[in-house]
Write a structure and sequence with these properties.
Belongs to the NmrA-type oxidoreductase family. Isoflavone reductase subfamily. The chain is of the alpha/beta class. It is built from 10 helices and 14 strands. Helix 3 crosses helix 4. The mean pLDDT is 90. Bound molecules: NADP nicotinamide-adenine-dinucleotide phosphate.
Length: 318
């Protein structure tokens, strides 16, 4: 099992190791966090934060060496500067391999990358980095896995109530397929109404991650599936209506229309529109319909959409 862990890129999901629920498990590990800047909040939670320069491989090597890390978890993502992200990822992996790391989990955490390998254009490097990381890890006997989870349910939580994920800018919620806070609450039925979409709470990903880290060396699959709950968009609308005790609008958008919007968005050169369009295509093209969970998650309870929505939008929660 892993013992000394480095988390690179502590924003959003990366911070979830500090959640009270997972923290108990993580006491078993020694955790260091790599960041490009000081993170006093994380230090208060007991994390050893190391400020690193991802452009400087010797200093990255020294940072990894000083932690005696056996496992590297990357959450690095930079939608605004994909080239910088690509460079950071490659340098970090190179430094980790040179320092004899044994396990690596790249920043993925989205949909079924086997059936749907092409990420949204803002994260296009994921495709190339996957191939690069697979080659490097296989050549150096580093165990690695790509974690495929469902849509992160935390997106659907009320503004100001998300533990790990920032609220989307005001113009964004219009693209959320589940929008419980809208004046007229709604669910978008994206693509095939019969598709059973996977939705995973960030806490459950962290919980699953701990399970994975506790597995003996040599037991990881190159792809790890962790689904969380599964339901059709129509079921999500029915559940939400029951919890809110009011009418929830269902808006049907076919896959053809989702693809057409992607084409038009690219033509408009509006990056935000492109991002929204590509996300919605991914939510509706079947890529969030995950295969069965990887065996190591057997028996692990994950939160259901209904439970999460009731906790946040049920009566007595306003
Ligand atoms: N399935 C879903 O619904 C879903 C939803 C959200 C995210 N995800 C996936 O989850 C993963 C993590 O996303 P996240 O939301 O946690 O990301 P995030 O909050 O944006 O955090 C990314 C971290 O990357 C670091 N970073 C940014 N630019 C960098 C650069 N050029 N070089 C090195 N480090 C850089 C930053 O750390 P410092 O500033 O501290 O260095 C930042 O905290 C991604 O793979 C993303 O695609 C999936």
């Amino acid at each position: 099992m892993s013992e000394n862990i480095v988390i690179a890129g502590p924003g959003g999901l990366g911070e979830s190791y500090g959640s009270p629920f997972v923290f108990g498990y993580l006491r078993r590990f020694k955790v260091a966090v790599f960041s490009r800047s000081q993170k006093p909040e994380l230090e208060k939670k007991g994390a050893a934060v190391k400020v690193v320069d991802y452009n400087d491989i010797p200093s990255l090597r020294a940072a990894i060496k000083s932690t005696q890390a056996d496992t590297l978890l990357s959450f690095i993502v930079d939608l605004k500067n994909p080239d910088a992200m690509a460079r950071s990822h490659r340098n970090l992996l190179e430094a980790a391999v040179l320092e004899g790391i044994k396990r690596f989990v790249p920043a993925e955490y989205a949909n079924d990358v086997v059936r749907f390998p092409v990420p949204p254009s803002s994260e296009a490097d994921k495709l190339h980095f996957r191939e690069h990381a697979a080659r490097v890890c296989r050549a150096h006997d580093v165990e690695y896995t790509l974690i495929c989870n469902g849509i992160i349910m935390d997106f659907f939580l009320p503004r100001g109530k998300k533990k790990y994920i920032a609220d989307l800018p005001p113009e964004f919620p219009n693209i959320l397929p589940v929008y419980a806070e809208a004046d007229a609450p709604r669910v978008m039925v994206l693509g095939g109404p019969e598709d059973r979409i996977s939705m995973t709470l960030a806490d459950d990903i962290a919980k699953g991650m701990v399970r994975l880290l506790l597995q003996p060396y040599g037991s990881w699959d190159e792809i790890t599936y962790l689904s969380g709950d599964r339901m059709s968009w129509e079921e999500a609308a029915e559940i939400l209506g029951r919890i809110l005790d009011r009418k929830v609008e269902t808006r049907y958008v076919s896959l053809d229309d989702l693809k057409q919007e992607v084409r038009e968005a690219h033509g408009s050169y509006d990056l935000m529109r492109v991002e929204c369009a590509e996300l919605n295509e991914a939510f509706g093209n079947g890529s969030e319909v995950l295969p069965a969970n990887t065996i190591c998650f057997e028996g692990m309870e994950t939160k259901r959409f209904e439970q999460v929505m009731r906790e946040h939008y049920g009566k007595g929660n306003d």
